[in-house]
Each structure stands twice: as C-alpha cells, then as structure tokens.
Design goal:
The protein is of the alpha+beta class. It has 11 helices and 22 strands. Among the domains are: 146 residues, 3-Layer(bba) Sandwich (FAD/NAD(P)-binding domain); 111 residues, no CATH class. Strands 1, 2, 9, 10, 11, 12, 21 and 22 form an 8-stranded mixed beta sheet that branches. Strand 16 and strand 17 form a beta hairpin. The two termini are 34 Å apart.
C-alpha cells in the first residue's frame, strides 16, 4: 500500500533535516516525509565531522560556501540558544609554522576581509602568547569560529520534525523511482510512496540518486576517508583555540588540524585517503561496486594525476602513524606518538568532474519535481539552515 505526500526529503543528515523543518515552516499544513536508510539520523557525514562552526575564512567571495557559511554561523548559534543545545565560541588560530607560509597566510587574510569575516593578523610572538604550546611564525585569529555537536543538533531537528507532524521513515532505502506528470513515485525497501516534490540530500549517494530520477549530472562522488586521532596524555589546557595549518594551495584539502571537542579533550585530523567503499570508514570496508565505480571513472585518474604527490603523502601518513604525527608536530611539538589514540573516521562525499576537477562549491541540480543536493562539502553542517532556506525557495519556485 502506497502513501502520498506533498513533499519528501531523502537523507537524514543535518541538511536534509533542516530542509524538512524549513518545508514545515513555510507549508505548515503540508504532508511531509523524510526517508533515511539507516536506523537513526546523522549516521554519516553529519555525525562524523570535526564539529567546527566555521566562520568562512577560506571560501571564494560570492560563492555559495561564503554566503551560506556567513549566515550559518549566526543561524547555528541561534538554533542552539533557542533549544538549549551546547556550543562554544573558542576561536581559531591559523598558524604559519615558518616564514615560507607567511605569504599564504596573507592571502587568507585578504580573502577573509573580502568575505566580511572578523579576522586579526598576529605576529608569531602574539600567537604564542595566546597559545604557548604552539609553534608559529605568524597567525590569523578567527574569533567567531566555534565547536558544537552536529549529531545532537540533527537529532533535535528530527524530534522537532516528528512533533510537528512529519513522518520520519528510518531503515528505508530508496531503490529507484520515476517522475510522473503530477509528481514522482519513489520506490523504497519499505514500499512505494508518491510525492508532489522531493529533495534529495543523499550525501555519499547523491550522484546515484540524481541519475536514478533523471537528472543530468556529469560528475561522480568519490569517497575520501578522513582519519582522526584523539589526543591523550595531554593537559586539558593544551590549547584554548582550534589550531589549523595554512592550507597548501597545491593540495585539495585543508590539512590536519587540532580541534577541541564538546565532550572535553582534543582530536587531530582529518587526512584524506581514498575510501574503498562509499561508507568505508576503515581499510577493511570494501565495496567492489563502489571501488569499480571509482577506478572506472576517468575523472578520478585525472584528479590523481593532478595531485599525485599529495595522494602518496596522505596514503603513507595513513599507513605510518609517525608520519601522521609529523604533520601535527609542525605546529604543536608537545604531542608525542603515544598521545595519538584511535578515533572514529569520516568519509567525505567529494563530487569530481570528468576532467578531474574537484567541484569546490555547493551544487544543486533540479528536474521538474525534484531538487538534488549533489555536492555539500564543508561548511555544510555550519550552513545547514541557510542551505535549507535556499533549497525550499528553489523548490517552491519563488
């Protein structure tokens, strides 16, 4: 027996949940369902990230990332304040560990100012006065950067969604479907459902869902595992801020950073290595289908060719813990090998174009009755509420 809804959201991460709640706010009488294949929400990217409320320092001016992140900082804090959820505005230091990194630091400073981000340039002495255990030739202080627990925010959104009359379908996998004249039919492991409109926030499965419902996409999601360690044997005041390296413009990711956690203590990470399955959180997690899809995609090999040096370095640092530690000790020399304890990994869903270009910004693709969030990189969690507003505005045709 099938059920019909005014709108369906596929994907129970924080962006999908924020979208479902936004739909309820603009159409309070609508019948809305959210479909999640896991037994609970926030099992993947939303529950396996650094927990950082990003200020928006890094992003190209005028991009979705820059605009959504700037609005998302305020929106995330306001949501937490309204609902009694925890967060901390601890600030972030982006540190240049030698004089060779100072030009990159200066470029970041200019970009932050272009984005209207509160930022302060510090000398090495000023940075080390703030953080005595950090090595720095110079730094940027982002005072509005913070930390929170995005999985807790997602669970709160799920509870609010069902309390407002929404239908949360967990343990239900979307297996296919098609658009019709009046809407679309969605096949799920729990049976078929019909909807006038649907939003797909499918994360690691975004490209597959888009193609399944007739969207034209010329990219593939390549899964990159980000490995973290929890810091042990160190004092609780090891650092007061988040500590980030200056990103290397020749490398596709930001680099290993030292992050305070809401439950106390610190983590370092993530690195970026190819995952052998789209939900491959360890080297033993292998999907022949997923791996064949990656290795058979020309864009993957073009990406590797452009980033061969960093790919080898990330892979060896994953395999040899001492090499991972070397990345951390560049800016925090007090951390020793025995201080690195196991911590959960995450997998980043990175959209890669056929020419090997990593799609850097948010990507939305529409059909007559659907909207697909095809690329939602960091700062998606920070930006979930303004992203949801953007999605619903587009879906409603306003």
């Amino acid at each position: 027996m099938s059920t019909t809804y005014d709108a369906v959201v596929v994907g129970g991460g924080i962006v999908g949940l924020a979208t479902a709640r936004r739909l309820q706010s603009v159409q309070p009488d609508a019948k809305i369902a959210l479909i999640e294949k896991e037994t609970e929400v926030a099992r993947h990217q939303s529950g396996r990230n650094s927990g950082v409320i990003h200020a928006g320092v890094y992003y190209a001016p005028g991009s979705h990332k820059a605009r959504f992140c700037r609005a998302g900082v305020t929106a995330t804090r306001a949501y937490c304040d309204q609902h009694g959820l925890s967060y901390e505005t601890c600030g972030k230091l982006i540190v240049a560990t030698d004089e060779g990194e100072l030009p990159g630091l200066a470029r970041l400073h200019r970009r932050a100012l272009e984005n209207g981000i509160e930022i302060a340039a510090l000398t090495g002495e000023e940075a080390q006065k703030l953080e005595p255990r950090i090595r720095a030739a110079g730094a940027l202080l982002s005072p509005t950067t913070g930390i929170t627990d995005y999985a807790a925010i997602a669970r709160h959104m799920a509870a609010a969604f069902t309390a407002a009359g929404g239908t949360l379908m967990v343990n239900a996998t979307v297996t296919g479907g098609q658009e019709t004249g009046a809407g679309l039919r969605i096949e799920t492991s729990a049976g078929p459902i019909f909807a006038a409109k649907a939003v797909f926030c499918a994360g690691l499965m975004a490209d597959r869902m888009a193609r399944a419902f007739g969207a034209e996409v010329d990219f593939r999601v390549i899964p990159f595992r980000g490995e973290y360690y929890r810091i042990q044997n160190q004092p609780p005041d090891l650092v007061r801020h988040l500590i980030y390296p200056v990103p290397d413009p020749a490398r596709p990711f930001l680099g290993v950073h030292l992050t305070r956690k809401m439950d106390g203590g610190f983590t370092v990470g993530p690195n970026a290595v190819l995952a052998l399955a789209r939900e491959g959180y360890g080297w033993g997690d292998i999907s022949v289908t997923d791996l064949a899809g990656t290795l058979g995609y020309p864009g993957f090999w073009r990406l590797i060719a452009k980033n061969a040096g960093s790919a080898v370095e990330e892979l060896t640092a994953s395999a040899i813990k001492r090499l991972y530690l070397r990345k951390v000790r560049r800016y925090c020399p007090d951390i020793a090998l025995d201080d690195l304890a196991p911590y959960r990994a995450g997998v980043r869903a990175q959209a890669v174009a056929r020419d090997g270009r990593m799609i850097d910004d948010f990507l939305f693709v529409e059909t007559r009755h659907t909207l697909h969030v095809c690329n939602a990189p960091s700062p998606a969690a920070t930006s979930a509420l303004p992203i949801a507003e953007h999605i619903v505005t587009r879906l409603m045709g306003a």
